[in-house]
């Protein structure tokens, strides 16, 4: 899910803002943003449906929708600037819309990170368990080879 969010990142908004001086580039950028948002909306729906607790899912869904509204306004302003490339008011509005989209992207990312806490805890736990298993495998290998010192006359095979 992070790939489409990163595509709508501040770098993209900066490209949109810089295109104020080259309005002919705005059409391609708006098309790319629309495509990236479409991917984000699909993946955001799945993330919201699986998020625990439900409040996190609601936040993800709401923030993705708010980002969509911001993208709509940004595309509209890009179209308006293409129609009248010398209008300084429309240029300022486009820049403001790009800033708003940047803010909304950061809100989506924070909601996704909040929903990711449980997943991250599972990844951390799995990594710790893998480390313990590797340590046990190493100990078994040395014990089987007979390189560990026995405290009494028992063999490793008795304990294994």
Automatic annotation (TrEMBL):
Could you list this entry's UniProt keywords, alphabetically sorted.
Cytoplasm
Coiled-coil stretches: none
Determine if Translocase is one of this entry's keywords: no
Cellular localization per UniProt = Cytoplasm
InterPro entries, sorted: Alpha-catenin/vinculin-like_sf, Vinculin-bd_dom
Q: Where is the Vinculin-binding site-containing domain?
A: 16-117
**SUPFAM superfamilies, sorted:** alpha-catenin/vinculin-like
Q: Which GO terms describe its biological process?
A: actin cytoskeleton organization; cell-cell adhesion
Q: Name one GO molecular function term.
A: actin filament binding
GO cellular component terms given for this protein: cytoplasm; focal adhesion; plasma membrane
Q: What is its main location?
A: cytoplasm
Signal peptide start-end: none
Q: Which PANTHER family match?
A: TALIN, TALIN-2
Its recorded name reads: TLN2 protein
Which species is this record about? Answer: Oxyruncus cristatus
Its lineage opens with: Eukaryota, Metazoa, Chordata, Craniata, Vertebrata
């Amino acid at each position: 899910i992070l790939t489409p969010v990163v595509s709508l990142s501040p770098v993209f908004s900066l490209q949109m803002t810089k295109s104020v001086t080259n309005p002919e580039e705005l059409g391609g950028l708006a098309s790319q943003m629309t495509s990236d948002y479409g991917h984000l909306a699909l993946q955001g729906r799945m993330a919201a449906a699986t998020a625990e607790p439900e409040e996190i899912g609601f936040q993800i869904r709401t923030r993705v929708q708010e980002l969509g509204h911001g993208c709509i306004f940004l595309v509209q302003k890009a179209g308006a600037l293409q129609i009248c490339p010398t209008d300084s008011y429309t240029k300022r509005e486009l820049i403001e819309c790009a800033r708003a989209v940047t803010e909304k992207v950061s809100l989506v990312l924070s909601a996704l990170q909040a929903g990711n806490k449980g997943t991250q805890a599972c990844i951390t736990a799995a990594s710790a368990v893998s480390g313990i298993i590797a340590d046990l495998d190493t100990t078994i290998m040395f014990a089987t080879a007979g390189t560990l010192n026995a405290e009494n006359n028992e063999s490793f095979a008795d304990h294994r």
